[in-house]
Design a protein that fits this description.
This protein is an all-alpha fold. It has a single domain, classed as EF-hand (Recoverin, domain 1), CATH 1.10.238.10. Helix content is about 45%, strand content about 0%. The longest helix is centred in the middle third of the chain and has 21 residues. InterPro entries: CML48/49/50, EF-hand-dom_pair, EF_Hand_1_Ca_BS, EF_hand_dom.
Length: about 240
């Protein structure tokens, strides 16, 4: 199974897409994607291991040093109870202030991937800052492959975008991914940024979960039934 090139094992932000993807067993490269959206900084490799031990106390939102004021404003705008955490509906409103209005299905997937380790239904300021920065980087990838500047990408452009990130997705899998957005009109299926993020995060998230079971990067792993279900079901629920 092919893996992404240039990702930390815990980061959902893409790295430099200029080089062809490596095979799954090759050594992982360090993130070097420097796109900076709205002044935010990409999460570091040690982000998740650090933030699990540095949670802000309720009522005292703690953002990473250097977080852009726009990110802080977007969070505080929806955190009306000043708890320091936001739920999926608040996240949807917050992201709408800087990007577009994401489908609640995409929001739930982002919540699952960036969730607070102590509360799976909410995210805090550190998670929010990482998510915002990640979306900025995915936006750069989307715009790179939206060659006709239509605001949408088709199946081939999706294939090329995922390939640039290190995912040589089989055509059959691509068809399954994009079929979710087929309205039955007979027209060519195209994805907007919202749908692109959803597809990309599903591929990225499942790959990361698989890599946890394949620490030597052999391209194969043995899973129990329980492990398989615990990996796949959250993505299916988000994608439903």
């Amino acid at each position: 199974m092919d893996s992404s090139r240039g990702y930390s094992s815990h980061s959902y932000a893409p790295s430099a897409p200029e080089l062809p993807p490596q095979s799954y067993g090759q050594q992982q490269q360090q993130d070097n994607y420097s796109y900076n959206h709205h002044g935010g900084s990409p999460p570091s490799h040690s982000y998740y291991s650090q933030h699990q031990q540095q949670q802000p106390s309720y009522g005292q939102p703690s953002f990473p040093a250097g977080t852009h004021a726009e990110v802080i404003r977007a969070f505080e705008m929806v955190d009306r109870d000043r708890s320091g955490f936001i739920d999926e509906n608040e996240l949807q409103r917050a992201l709408s202030s800087g990007y577009q209005r994401f489908n609640i299905r995409t929001i739930r997937l982002l919540m699952f991937l960036f969730k607070n380790p102590h509360d799976s239904l909410k995210i805090g300021p550190k998670e929010f800052a990482a998510l915002w920065s990640c979306l900025g980087q995915w936006r750069a990838i989307f715009e790179r492959f939206d060659r006709d500047r239509s605001g949408k990408i088709d199946l081939m452009e999706l294939r090329d975008a995922l390939y640039s990130l290190g995912y040589a997705i089989p055509p059959s899998v691509l068809q399954v991914l994009i079929s979710k957005y087929d309205n039955g009109s007979g027209r060519k299926v195209e994805l907007n940024f919202d749908s692109f993020v959803e597809c990309g995060m599903i591929v990225k998230g499942l790959t990361e979960k698989f890599k946890e079971k394949d620490p030597r990067y052999t391209g194969s792993a043995t899973l129990t039934y329980d492990s398989f279900m615990s990996i796949v079901i959250p993505f299916l629920v988000s994608y439903d």
